[in-house]
Recover the amino acids of this structure.
């Protein structure tokens, strides 16, 4: 009895991955083993960088808050310590947005925690 191989499914699987690697450079887009390895590695990078994205944004917010706080005569750590001590519930994302787009509101928050 001849061997039965499901060519339809295996070809479809290869076509799907080769379609996902369109736009890659050289053999990465059309050689099955290279394309498969590249695609799998891309999935690992995507997983890793979803975590790194959060880290990078937090670092950006801290830099923006620090720059705005220094214009008000405080360092970042002094400002955050004063915010926590005064009981103001505001996160870094919102604080950085205020520092960038509404400096008057940021100044009001700094004045409030300085006096508290």
């Amino acid at each position: 009895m001849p061997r039965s191989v499901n060519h339809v499914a295996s070809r479809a699987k290869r076509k799907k991955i080769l379609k996902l690697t369109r736009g890659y450079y050289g053999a990465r887009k059309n050689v099955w083993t290279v394309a498969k390895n590249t695609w799998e590695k891309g999935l690992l990078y995507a997983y890793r960088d979803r975590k790194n994205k959060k880290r990078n944004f937090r670092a950006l917010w801290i830099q923006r808050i620090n720059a705005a706080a220094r214009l008000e005569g405080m360092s970042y750590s002094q400002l955050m310590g004063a915010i926590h001590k005064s009981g103001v519930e505001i996160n870094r994302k919102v604080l950085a947005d205020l520092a960038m787009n509404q400096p008057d509101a940021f100044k009001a928050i700094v004045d409030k925690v300085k006096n508290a």
About this structure: The chain has a mean pLDDT of 95.
